Automatic annotation (TrEMBL):
The chain crosses the membrane at residues 6-28, 201-220. The keyword Repeat does not apply. Belongs to the SURF1 family. It is found in: Cell membrane; Membrane. Pfam families: SURF1. GO terms for cellular component: plasma membrane. This is SURF1-like protein. It comes from Roseovarius gahaiensis. It is a multi-pass membrane protein.
């Protein structure tokens, strides 16, 4: 191979391979985006489906987000889970026991500002429409719950069930047959499910463009160098 040809060919091939890899990763992320959006659409449809009776033995995988309608009595005790709402600020999720007669489950009543008092539960039998949920609120930076002070940092179902004397099964309220103001339902949705594939794709495509620009600049420098070596 002629030295002049090799001078251009090696960086050109190296640059082309790098661009192809980066573009391929971007295309893969776009495919992942389509896949993830399809999953989220299915979950949204499941969440909004017509409610059914509470299953006798719900499965955390098969029954996740299952819409249910239950009737019973709200327990007197309320646990406070610290959360933050956009444009609202800090507040609590209010978790109470819900007595169905033949069993007791956990009820996520909704959100209340930290400055507001949690209202007493309604008297008598009420009806809740909501969704079953096994939340994954805890990560490596989540503080431990302060049970003595009734300040929780995650909806940890097992310890909450122990405190309230219920099954470790959570119904997140969407609609209620009573007013629980100032507590407002905070229904299950897909906003907490990460979907960063578009950002990843744009990152890979941007890196491909930068790589192409760097390759072009390097070839230009090689050409300028070759001119300087001419007769």
């Amino acid at each position: 191979m002629e030295p002049d040809v090799a001078r251009y060919l090696v960086p050109f091939v190296f640059g082309l391979v790098g661009i192809a890899i980066l573009v391929g990763l971007g295309v893969w992320q776009m495919q992942r985006l389509t896949w993830k959006e399809s999953i989220l659409a299915d979950i949204d449809a499941r969440i909004a489906a017509d409610p059914v009776a509470l299953p006798a033995a719900p499965n955390p995988q098969a029954d996740r987000y299952l819409p249910v309608q239950v009737s019973g009595q709200v327990g007197d005790q309320a646990l406070r889970v610290l959360v933050s709402q956009k444009k609202v600020g800090a507040g609590y999720r209010v978790i109470s026991a819900f007595d169905l007669g033949d069993r007791r489950v956990l009820l996520d009543r909704g959100f209340v500002k930290v400055s507001a008092d949690i209202p007493a539960p309604p008297q008598g039998t009420v009806t809740i429409t909501g969704n079953l949920h096994w939340p994954d609120d805890r990560n490596s930076s989540t503080p431990e719950n302060d049970v003595a002070d009734n300040t929780w940092f995650a909806r940890d179902l097992e310890p909450m069930a122990d405190v309230l004397g219920t099954d470790p099964l959570l119904v997140v309220a969407r609609d209620t047959s009573y007013s629980d103001a100032p507590v407002t339902p905070l229904p299950v949705d897909t906003s907490a499910i990460a979907n960063d594939h578009l950002e990843y794709a744009l990152t890979w495509f941007s890196l491909a463009a930068i790589w192409a620009a760097m390759t072009g600049y390097f070839l230009w420098r090689v050409r300028q160098s070759a001119k300087g070596e001419g007769p």
